[in-house]
Records
---
Amino acid sequence: MNNPLNASSLDNSGRRIVVDPVTRIEGHMRCEVNVDENNIIRNAVSTGTMWRGLEVILKGRDPRDAWAFVERICGVCTGTHALTSCRAVEDALGIQIPLNAHLIRHMMDKTLQIHDHIVHFYHLHALDWVNPVNALKADPKATSELQQMVSPHHAKSSPGYFKDVQTRLKKFVESGQLGLFANGYWDNPAYKLPAEADLMAVAHYLEALDLQRDIVKIHTIFGGKNPHPNYMVGGVACAINLDGVGSSGAPVNMTSLNFVLERIREAQAFTNNVYIPDVMTIAGVYKDWLYGGGLSSTNLLSYGTYTQVPYDKSTDLLPAGAIVNGNWDEVLPVDVRDPEQIQEFVDHSWYNYEGEKKGLHPWDGETQPNFELGPNTVGTKTDIKELDESAKYSWIKAPRWRGHAMEVGPLARYIIAYASGQERVQEQVDRSLSGFNQSTGLNLGLKQFLPSTIGRTLARALECQLCADTMLDDWHQLIGNIKNGDSSTANVEKWDPSSWPKEAMGVGINEAPRGALGHWIKIKDGKIENYQAVVPTTWNGSPRDSDGNIGAFEASLLNTPMERPDEPVEILRTLHSFDPCLACSTHVMSEDGQELTKVKIR
Amino acid sequence: MSQIETFYEVMRRQGITRRSFLKYCSLTAAALGLGPTFGPKIANAMETKERTPVIWLHGLECTCCSESFIRSAHPLVKDVVLSMISLDYDDTLMASAGHQAEALLEETIQKYKGKYILAVEGNPPLNEDGMFCIIGGKPFLDQLKHAAKDAAAVIAWGSCASWGCVQAARPNPTQAVPIHKVITDKPIIKVPGCPPIAEVMTGVITYMLTFGRVPELDRQGRPKMFYSQRIHDKCYRRPHFDAGQFVEEWDDEGARKGYCLYKVGCKGPTTYNACSTVRWNEGTSFPIQAGHGCIGCSEDGFWDKGSFYDRLTDIHQFGIEQNADEIGTAVAGGVGAAIAAHAAVSAIKRAQHKGDQDS
């Protein structure tokens, strides 16, 4: 077998580079690579370095409370686990929610998508492309011209505005207290933007802080707070009262709906005038840096999302499906209930399955933590210098779809939607590619352009635009439904546990900001018997499996040249393009959660 | 000195006149519940202070505290980070990674011994020699103890660092512990909540920078300025509680009219936090206003106190006259079901006024 994305094809003889902590991500992660004599990455090892055991904690609890526990899996993609949990419980108990609740949940979910994508790009990812120190050299007038050229409708574009931003940055840098920018790689030749583009991006880093603060207020209206808005099994808790007694103290009334509408419009304007032009500007300058494709050129998975007719998955705005071996002509159906399709492996994860090297479907998942290091580890148990990837090396399990390692996330959703003929997505992607080719003079095809680090970053921006636009549709549909006399927000028929069957099992799915998310639940005697979440970063950040298939993070780093191996700019750039979320990725639970209280010390 | 941009300079540069700046300072003093003489003190501090170094560590957590922090509207988080503090280490936001990031941590500790603020989000697991949370190949516990040693003050952000939170809920498989279990020689300011409110977080920081001292804390280590009253005490739905008007089930008439959520499990009567006063996300709303009961996320062990939809039955009594210390004593004393009795009284009142309610 000579699969380039198999561990057997990797060369770990060259110099080993260790990056720990990997910063500007959620949670804790380590990355090790080997570079050859030309400083090209030939082996990559990605490690989840935290484990919290939330699903163990869920055992025996009230299923109606589960959303709050699993919401705390992650405060960055806040709400997506809560929503998925409600769906899992509703699926198990046969509860269908009212249309208004469906629409409000969609608006909350899209709010998260927009927020998460914008914060990711500007506050976690941008510094991989943008050099804030170089921005000091920019001419504010030329920056203003650049801004007006790339987005003629953006109001903050005067020379005086950019002069102010630059002055503030100058004072900050000259203070000697560089804070978050300290020890950055600012003289590394991997940074290629002209100074004016750097200054424009720094201004947008600050503008995005304002936007992210405001867009989440949609969660505050419908869910009471952000981060961690409230969700509820059976619908939403925010009752609607537009013109009756008590309307002004009701959660959803005319003023709060008007408020939401304003936030949607702001998000649309920011995405169209700032976010997408910035990504396209960066793509244009880094036109020769098309590394980082990895698994995205072969294997992609999406569960589908934004179901337009409730409970009819065929109406998903971003459809479900799987692509394997790079065959975009065939989008395969995905069934999350089929025990043969989704399985998790632990050969290289710090867990044990009893007895054998097998894959387990999440409904039958089991977990026994087993922290042990391989014989070639350099260092000690509590001071690891270099990991031994031939043995166990991560707190993340290895999920596989029909045995394949898969990439999930915005790029997977977009390629699958494109390949499925989703016209809205095709239009966005085609427009972006032709814009890129025009501005760079290149003539790249989709399969050269999209499966790359920059393609992953672009897909996220396009999805942000799609969410802002369609959230406006949701808002109008909600108004229309209320106008037709339907104010219902909750189905309480099965709220009382005495109405439940003795045993039930269900699955909830969603497409979280970082990709395919599934929660599998078993309920017995009104309590949670088993709960298992397989989350996006478990797919993308997975270690190797029994057959040596490597995960998306590791695959994406291969064959990338590094300007300076001691400065991991390129590693960060590509890892960040996945928006890793490590707190999400590292939980699991056994049929017999009790075992977890006995942790083996070796 | 000083090319360092002070907060005053930031405001001036943004077109604020000196007169407005002084007014802002006196309003800030008033908002913090301080007398008018504090206005000039705030002004002086903001005009002259250099930025205080802050080390922000992450243990087992979900990053909701960082996310909340960047939502702050007053002060704006960009002003906090660019002009008020020097966020010298924060692995969620910092540009550098790996060795360069580790070097920064060490440099900050050495350079500012005894002068930096240590802010901790999340908590250390003790099981598996601490290796359920690994930073730089070593247990997070080591990093935490190391950074705490020379800190001037320690802030415990959120319920993880303050109490343990979700990973410490039964059966706590990783043996995650609140930071006061491992940092025992330093005052710790607990700012609980899952997450805490953004303006509460930046309020605590600005108070410390402005006055050069730790805010007054209650017996459990929480700033009294934000945690001395229960959500129920200042809830806008409180009059409905007193009138015996309750949401009986989701989306009923009471839910649409904004009645009290006590009967569907609201933990507002036992939760000390500023949600009903400061509210969330620039004062936009808060959980009860959005129709769901409070789940008590700023209280110690709130995950293990029964379902979020169970009605409270174990609280002593009501009234804003009691502070957290006193009520804590009362609860510890195991006093019975007075809240239920209180609700019953309210129900009687409702019965008496029944004719008024069907409007």
Note: The two ends of chain A are 36 Å apart (CA to CA).
---
Amino acid sequence: MSGSVILHGRTVVPGSVEGEALVSHEPISGWGGIDPARGVIIEPRHELFGVCFTGKILVFPSAKGSSGWSGFFQTTRLSGTAPIGMVIGRISAKSALGAVVTRVPAITDLDADPCSVIATGDWVLIDNSTVEVTKR
Amino acid sequence: MFLTDEEKRMRDGAEGDAVAAAMDLLIRYGYALDAERLCDIRNVAGTMTQPSPVKARLVAEGGWDKAFAVINLDSDLDLTVPPMRVPTCQLQHGFGPDSVDIVPYPAANVALQSDAEAFYGRHGVNILATCTPYQVGNLPLRGEHCAWMESSAVIYANSVLGARTNCEGIASTGAASLTGKIPCWGNHLDENRLGTHLISVEGHAVESFQDWGMLGYFAGGVAGEDHPVITGSVSRPDLTELKHFGAAAATSGGVELYHIPGITPEAATVEAAFGSAAAVPAAAVYGPAERRAVYETLNEIGSSTDVDFVLLGCPHASVDQIRQAAGLLDGKRLSAGTELWIMAPRALKVMADRSGYTAVIERAGGRVLADSCPAMSRAAPAGTRVFATDSAKQAHYLPAILGIEAWFGTLEECVAAAVTGRWNGGLH
């Protein structure tokens, strides 16, 4: 499959970035869900268990679990293991603050479910309130 | 986002650089949420003292002012931390000096945290050092706007106390502590506090501590980040059971608010929980099959029945939970290869000491520990491969954090495992 799709949404953190998508269909935990030193998902029951998100555009439906979420993603920034952008299905206090303190372009409230439209490996361009997806 | 004149003055530096940085973070955060305005709060529960490698590096570079700027305000500026503007407490953090010979936890962390307590105490932070501030004197009133972290405390404050807080984070609580402000969004607004999912308990009545935790884990799975409403065959819960229920619901999902009509304060009836009779959705049934499925999920990480470690008190134990454990351990002796720790708020450990419960537990070989937990501090007894707990939350998290196997059961099963060194639990 090739060609591109454009999704429209609401800016969470302003900015533009492009890169490869890593898509989670399940919510992501911060504390107890990721190892910020390595940028890896460590929740044993998670579909992305053992997968590294460093340098990827992380596409996920929502944040779950502990209020340590934002602090753990802030630590990925301070440790050089952060994702480079976030596409968030449904915003919450955890993921909004998490995106702010990770300081990467982030977007939510898209006009289609990003976790269905985007697949891991697709090339994604976040530009403020739009996401351009090039299928791979 | 609308800002009052007072908030604009804070943003523009009239109250100093640190308050300006705090307001800058709140504005960025409010934008991310699409919040219309900020609300006034005077109850903050956050974390400043918990040791971490990043924090140790920042303190070495620029002291606690630097660590607070970067971590608690998300600011790169060179700031001086002013006194807390509104009442602010420290939640659970690392282990303290009295744990040194018991818990394998780095001495450097203990020293860093002691230094942090002194610094933040001078700046007006109440060092409650527990995930359950509501057990040790921080009890917000119904309708009170707060800025709390700690998912198990947030869900308790919203649901059981009827206070209003989102599940805040380190930077937002840091900014709130210096401004008395937080985005007025989500759980702060009347229209966002109604139920969304109805769960009907049928068949096996939920009336034990274990069953309340399993129901919470189920409710989080059903409701995700939304608001479950519980009806059907449930007993009248007490503080410890709702503490367990909420922690579990916030773990399996992202639940920050639930209603139990007739029990929790904002919903006298099922109809009131959803706003009207017409809004009541079809119920998801929690029956014997669903109960067994939750039990099996929480026990799927266990394979070896040789238990090295038993962990009680997640969220931090009440005095009564410590008393119950002491009652079961009285006159017993732990298996040679097994340790048992009960986590509690320090204020309540003092009461347990005074009541003689700690001495009974220690005579059996167990410990009552304050301030932290194995998950927060990534510390369990040396060589632990298999642990048992009565907490759905710890059964969920600790295998991921420490790479160990987990068994989830009742308090009685956990104490029996500590005494025999063997797991012999089952769903009854």
Note: Helices of chain A lie at 69-79, 93-102, 114-117.
